[in-house]
User: Fold this.
Amino acid sequence: MVVILWTDGLVFLLLGLILAFAAFASRRPHLSLPWRRVGRSKSGMISAVILLCLISIGLLDSCHFRTQIAIDKGKPIYSVEVLSAFDALVKTMRDHTERTYSSPFSAYAFSRETVVSDGVQSRVYPRLRYGGANLADPDKERIPDILKRSLVAALEGIGTWALLGGILVISLSRGKGFIGAASTVLRGKTEIPWHAMLGTLLVIFLIAFPAFALSSHYHVFGTDKVGQDVFYLALKSIRTGLVIGTLTTLVMLPFAIFLGIMAGYLGGWLDDVIQYLYTMLNSIPAVLLIAASVLMMQVYIDAHPALFETMAERADLRLLFLCMILGMTSWTGLCRLLRGEALKLREMEYILAAQAFGVSRLRIVTRHILPNVMHIVLISVVMEFSSLVLAEAVLSYVGVGVDPSMISFGTMINSARLEMAREPMVWWPLAAAFVFMFAMVLSANLFADAVRDAFDPRTRVASRRILPEKDEA
Amino acid sequence: MSLLELENLRTLLENNGNIVRAVDGVSFFIEKGETFALLGESGCGKSMTSLSILRLLPDAGKIAEGDVFFQGASLLSLPEKGMRDIRGKKIGIIFQEPGLSLNPVLKVGNQIGEVLDRHAHLDRAARRRRIVELLDQVGIPDPELRAEDYPFQFSGGMKQRVLIAMALAAQPDVLIADEPTTALDVTIQAQILDLLRSLQKKLGMAILLITHDLGVVSEMANRVAVMYAGEIVETASRDDFFARPAHPYSRKLFASLPGREKRGEMLDMIRGAVPSLSRKFSGCRFAERCDHAFDLCREVSPIWHDSGGSRVRCHLYADGKPGPIEEKKVVAQPVSRLDVPGEILLSVKDLRVHFPIHKGLFKRVAGHVAAVDGVSFSIEKGKTLALVGESGCGKTTLGKAILQLLAPTSGSVIYDGREITGLDRQSLKRARQGLQIIFQDPYASLNPRMRIREIMEEGMPGMGSRERNARIPGLLEEVGLSDDAQYRYPHEFSGGQRQRIAIARALAVNPRLIVCDEPTSALDVSVQAQILNLLKRLQADHGLSFLFITHNISVVEYLAHDIAVMYLGRIVEKGKVEDVLAAPAHPYTQALLAAVPSIARRTPQVMARFDLPSPSDPPAGCHYHLRCPNSMPQCETRYPESISLGESHQVRCHLYGKDPAGRGA
Assistant:
């Protein structure tokens, strides 16, 4: 049975909106021109490739379903566990849970246990149930086995990469012949830096293919306290981060755009009211507001257990609510920017000309002001994304973030923090969270920079094309 | 040896891989004590030439070839440190925008002091004395006190004076004045030009004057160079140039100037626009806009030829040939086909627009700015009323108030027999249908995110799409644009073309009155002529009335039927153009007319003293009495009544009152 959680629905709605905008913009040169400029930026496109990989994991992880476990009098009974397409894909990783901690690629548990064999009690490091279970003598065979498996997977990765690259070159060649097209791509002579993107993809494949291949027989990032594979947890955290980063802006945008433009364009008492509203919101510490609202929501969820069929639904509602409350507290900055811009645009002569035509206020706002502030909206949305991902980590660490049962970077860090004090140190959950979050936030930031450079009118010089003028009759 | 000499200077600007040849092989020299004018339209490389001389080019620019010699020594081979001793000390510069050239957080005395510290080593007292002396020299009253003021406490004209004082601080041998008066009003412009002339006489420096204004050149220059598309096409002495302009481009510039003597004719204009400097040229750069071009012009770039006293780059002067022969053809203006009796279309009675000044925590209304203060006039069908005045006198506010884009404080606007003030949105929409407006800045008046078609459709809400499809090409045709323009975006058009689009948009609603708010002041002379001709033709074809807001007297002389002169929110004189301009009665009108630099008159007069007072606190009595040379005691106490001087000529001045004392001033 397909389950559409609230956040899934909204994520796919957002995806649909983005695709619709892309189709709309591709036919309008003034909309697609800045995106082409993003396309020319090397760092922007490299980070876009990384982001795309992360986003596809997140999207796979957003297709939820419940498996059928039995049929009772013609009515199917579904498992209470909500799984995602991604879970199904990495089933082995998900199912291979150990008893407790084990370090990356280890075949033994992390701590000694008392084992009784042949009536003799001894304290040993027991073998793991799944990690390196295929090896007879882990001490000797482990490293060659890992190397062999990663080499095979790396070759597969190169093969896949070459296939993708070939398809790209063929689609680009357009009669120039395969060799010619390939050499232009590889020498970086194309408008879009395909060579940089292909290079990034190769690096990703060389890491991802071996990692996935090894994950069926080893724990690449070790296991956590309850024996879950940390690599799996880190991959699952991607979706949470993406949802927080994108849905929050979806919540925030209507407030910021609507109120900001209203305040700037209409002015008067409305402007005063909106200004006081966001000044007030800004002076309440955001963490306090978020903590209070999330706790209230938690009380509500706990008081109405009948509303939720599964754990996942409860956790999902809390995530959505967190997005909303983050959005409520973060619209003020953009709203202020838009108010200022609308104030400036209000005095532009084309707006006055529209007023002289008797164009209605709503139409002036939607046709004249909104399109002329969209670049600001876009720049601030992509800049905001990474700070929201980081905010989630901080909030979950404080304990007012996502539901404890939901896997996220914040919960990973939170559960790993005590283990840092152990001797020997349990470093891998934190390291895994760090590596993935770093990759996500850094590439989001670099991409945001490229977008800002392309859209900010101050950073570019308009090149004007002058048409031949028709002679006056 | 000349004081400053440029030799085959080539400056390139690189813009996203496009090479812009901003200055392409420019040579000229300036002698000690003379004024050399570099004349050209916008985008022809004038400013880049001056920045190249001082080596102050933007990062994207570089000097590719040629050299600059100052007193025989090459400036381009100097190290940057040596160049700093030249800038300011040997060659000073003043820029166009006085508002942007002063640091707002430093006292003006200190900004001048900075130059002194760099180039003259004076002790504290001497430094102070010198600053005061400099401010006094450029005509700033109370220089000791004013040296302690910040730039925002100065008006535009005063800021330009401060900048001149800064440029003169180290007594340079050459002063580069880059459009020094373009941002200023005519009366202030006359003051600044007068100041530059007297300083030059006193200090004996050379001036490199960069301007687009033939009138300014005529008043200031000893020698003239005409620049076109990165090249100099003609050099001549001032007298030769104005007596016998040689290059076809120079002649066209003269011909496209509007003026009194051209009333009733179409202006001669130059086709098209200044070419983009990023393209490659073959042959003469002016060929495609030239009426006399022949095959050779398109293939071979002309070399220098002598013609009378001037040197010119044109094939028509090769081997001592006499140059282009102009057949004098006067195209009469089209006469209106519509029979328009002297019927009044719009009448404005005692219109006031006051802006409240808010102060304090609770935004209490502390006073009012009387931007428009009791203005009455009327416009006949098919006629043009010109509204003239300096910036800040309330012209634009009046224009917006007539269209009800600003709510008037009191008074009435009667359009076509209907009162249109105080209507609600819906009835206003109907009543306003025949009223339209064209703005000054063609870059700000078209929404950059809409196609031309969508921009024009705004005015036709009631029409179906078939009707629109039929109408848009016709409108574009009428303003001289091709049909495919409707699918393009505004950024693809030049300034003049955008202004045509704005006119087409206004025509879309079949207006009967168009308020033209300085529609040509952002355009070059040659493009201005195109727009003025277009407006003239539209008036004849459609019987349109124009309220033409401008500060350019020669446009008024050419275009308008009636004139109203505005000063600090009130109309001080109005009447038929012939009457008012032939015999201006109000001292302010006289001052405005005298301040306009003219080609014919060599010595301009400065008649208006000081700057425009603030409209939030106008002087008591007649607003003009502080600046008026004929001020009388009653001027300080009472605002004069309107006095009729002829059938249609009215003036508000005590000189013409019942009190005979002032008659005949």
Summary: The radius of gyration of chain A is 27 Å. The interface with chain B takes residues 29-30, 348-350, 352-359, 367-368, 371-372, 461-473 of chain A (CB under 8 Å). The longest strand of chain A covers residues 75-84.
